[in-house]
User: Fold this.
Amino acid sequence: MLLKEKDNLMFYLSEQLNPFEINDLFQLWNSVYPMQLAYKELDGIREYLTALHHKKHILVKTPTNKVIGWFFSFERDGERWFAILINNEYKRKGLGSDLIKLAKKQFAPLNGWVIDHERYYRLDGEKYASPLAFYLRHGFRIATDVRLEIPTLSAVKIHYP
Assistant:
């Protein structure tokens, strides 16, 4: 379902992903997230997505149908969780803000894990920039009593409202 058009980009709400979208999301995931979260094979992200419950996606697509932005939410342990990924070439153009505004209207309350430091690197060798300030500007709060600390990753839990 089409939610919004902006600057020749289309924002679609979907519960299902087609093989072309999954391929775009695999590439987007591996180009945006720190290398610790990268998938070596397309099947890795397929398995990850299959295991999620009550999935919802908002895809931002170009006129050629390439996915350049992705919000997804799912249920885990009685809470709605989410993530947002924006193609690095399209960052700082308001797409993340558009996605978070749409998501807050459709799916709040929301919970997420956010890396709150800049010690990680992406697969392309560039430093991973923490998006924490972005989420705080959009009304999210840090759950000060919860932190994800595993050998490969360190992050804070955020929530809205």
